[in-house]
Amino acid sequence: MSIVVKRIMKVFFGLILVLVILLIAAFFCINSIVKHSINTGAPKLLGVNTHVDMVNIQPLSGIIHFKNLTLANPEGYTKDKCLFAVNEFYVSINMRRSSQTPSRSKRF
Questions:
Q1: 26 phi/psi in degrees, rounded to 5
Q2: In this structure, are residues 105 and 91 in contact, taking their beta carbons and an 8 Å threshold?
Q3: Which tens digits make up the pLDDT trace of 10-37?
Q4: Which is nearest to 22 in space by CA: 34, 30, 10?
Q5: In the predicted model, is pLDDT for residue 107 greater than 70?
Q6: What's the CA angle centered on 62, arms 97 and 85, to 5 degrees?
Q7: How many Cβ atoms sit within 10 Å of the Cβ of residue 7?
Q8: Whole-angstrom Cα distance, residue 32 to residue 50?
Q9: pTM of the predicted structure, to 2 decimals
Q10: Which partner for 53 in 36, 43, 68, 90 could form a disulfide, CB atoms 3.0-4.6 Å apart?
Q11: Is the distance from CB of 70 to CB of 82 less than 8 angstroms?
């Protein structure tokens, strides 16, 4: 093999290795990424204060667990009550069927 082909292969395998490391890091940090997104992105998107204390995503089993999720009332409504507040809830997705047909969650 020529030197150019060897360099291209090294760069290619290096990029694959970096991609695998990033995917593994995202897999282990997905809970904090989603929690941060809800706490910072949702208020900008929805225009109301939004907060969640804990998010636990189990991608292999298809379970998403939220604790203390609150959405405040929009402006013009009472500030003492939330539009939506839940202490704890689960969303369960059948991972085998999710790519085939729409399914309903059994546990909410």
A1: -65, -40
A2: yes
A3: 999 999 999 999 988 888 889 999 999 9
A4: 30
A5: no
A6: 120
A7: 10
A8: 15
A9: 0.68
A10: 68
A11: yes
Q: How many residues does the chain have?
A: 108
Residue type at 20?
Answer: V
Q: Between β-strands 82-92 and 50-51, what pairing exists: parallel, antiparallel or unpaired?
A: unpaired
CA-to-CA distance for 86 and 96, rounded, in angstroms?
A: 28
**Looking at beta carbons, which pairs linking 33-41 to residues 24 or more positions away fall under 8 Å?**
38/69
Q: How many helices (H) and strands (E) does the chain have?
A: 2, 4
Burial 70-106 (b: 16+ CB within 10 A, else e): bbbeeeeeeeeebeeeeeeeeebbeeeeeeeeeeeee
Q: What is the pLDDT of residues 55-78, one digit of tens each?
A: 999 888 888 999 999 999 888 888
Q: Which two tokens stand for residue 49?
A: 């204060």
